[in-house]
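Cross-posted from the bioinformatics board.
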Amino acid sequence: MKTLTERQQEILDFIRQRQESEGMAPTLREVATHFRFSSVNAALAHVQALLAKGVLKRVPRRARSLQVVDAGPSARRRPRVVSVPIYGSIPAGRPEDAAQEAEGCVLMDVETLGIRPTARTFGLQVRGDSMIGKHITDGDIAIIEHGVQPRSGDVVAALIDGQVTLKTFVLQRGKPYLRAENPRYPDLIPQEELQIQGVMVALVRKRK
Amino acid sequence: MKTLTERQQEILDFIRQRQESEGMAPTLREVATHFRFSSVNAALAHVQALLAKGVLKRVPRRARSLQVVDAGPSARRRPRVVSVPIYGSIPAGRPEDAAQEAEGCVLMDVETLGIRPTARTFGLQVRGDSMIGKHITDGDIAIIEHGVQPRSGDVVAALIDGQVTLKTFVLQRGKPYLRAENPRYPDLIPQEELQIQGVMVALVRKRK
DNA sequence: TCCAGTACTGGACAAATAAACAGCACTGTG
DNA sequence: CACAGTGCTGTTTATTTGTCCAGTACTGGA
């Protein structure tokens, strides 16, 4: 593929962005307006250059027919996005019962999360610094996959006293316990049954 | 939501299908052609009915502006997703020059990232532990917003010796320098101009 | 029978849009 | 200097598209 000029790359990015966020490709006029061209033709020229270089497709004489050719690796994988609800705390019971109390939502592609598309997944806003040893800080969102068998060393969301906390799941001599990754917090040896809500598969941190 | 007539459901399905497969919504004439209407107006009437019932959105007087309202759980919040390209390392020059060399992609919603939808954003796979003090570990993906003025304390991607590294941007007595969040790494006081690629707005960590 | 709702035809019109043509300014190169 | 490439302006033309108006046909009540 031929290289694009800086300006052409900007135009291409804009078109891609618009198509992804608005669901439809921009018109030449919208491109021109966004880049403050006073002539549509400037946009047209760029689009034609992108067309010639094969990074854009179009149906001639059709409104909004621009399509970014993502011919590369992302052409085949269709971006399967899942909407992950975020909870600040999860009350007793199954997490899906609390679906209405989601505090927010993160949309991420299945690929990145590395989960099964069928999996029940939710986000958990981390409170405190009990997992600081694994570099999980206050305010981070832990993406938890429900219904997975945890392995030793996995970070899991566990139900303790009606509250969900993040801990490291450790198997020692066949017996499981939960370890906090901060010396100021005690380990938890379960008296009865260990209630694991799910295993952390990803972490998202936002700028405050 | 009011119930749809059989015909209306067919029309709605067609519009959804076209948008998903072609990447753009059909025009009224395309709808009419597909259903073998000899008048555009038949399609218009149906579309208006769907509009009235709230299952379809549109921008008036705009070509191909139909959008199916996904009645699902994510109905209210419009999931504006952006496709963030991920670079392992960025060679010398501006990041957009290396667009073709993206190693992967993360799809995330604009809401979570807290960026302007028009912004140029990219992901940077973190190498090493020079930012461990801010709990950014090897393998993390830093989401960088390009073209933003960094403030003191922000984590930024900076261009040093043709390589992009993550550092904390610090303004001390009006003079900027870059701080590594690890005592084993030295601070960087720029000799000439400080090349800031962008400011970190979010962090994504995948389970390995 | 009358009426209302749904489904469609046919035609006309204005706005939105793509496309083409003629330029101008700037930059680097031989 | 001439020349080519890039980036942009300004204008015109043809097509596409959304919208409106008037009318037909069928259906199922009241």
